[in-house]
Amino acid sequence: MRMMVRLLIVGMIWFWGGLLAAAPASAGEYVGSKSCSACHEEEYATFMKYSKKAHSWDKVEKMLPKLEPEEQQSCFGCHTTGYKKGGFVSYDKTPQFADVGCETCHGPGKEHVAGDGDPELITRTPTITTCSHCHNAQRVKDFNYKPLLHSGAH
């Protein structure tokens, strides 16, 4: 009997620990790309000037009137920063996250900024796995674009 209780407790700890570890970033962990510009001025300027990602909301905004609310929300995951992870909520509430920003590829920046730019507190070099949520075979086929790992222009 004791063994079953122990197994149950260990199982519950494993289950809940796994859920908590997989939980999305909480509200407030995202700081917005302008926060990055204070230390990464040149990268930010280049990104804003040359990257299509930095202006992704323009395309979403044009499509919104043609889409149902569920369809609109399916766009937000790839065309905004931190949607359903503590970042973008709506253009009215969180306009600073209404484009694909630095934190989409490099992760939430709150700890990095608070830690005086400690490079260990941010994803310095994104991998193809980071990009594959949006840049995958189905979307390449549907939208006829090529996934570019280093398309951030910085």
Automatic annotation (TrEMBL):
SUPFAM superfamilies documented for this protein: Multiheme cytochromes
Record's keyword annotation contains Nucleotide-binding: no
UniProt xrefs under Pfam families: Cytochrome_C554
Domain Cytochrome c-552/4: 36-107
Superkingdom of source: Bacteria
Keywords: Signal
Full protein name: Cytochrome C
Species assigned in the record: Desulfoplanes formicivorans
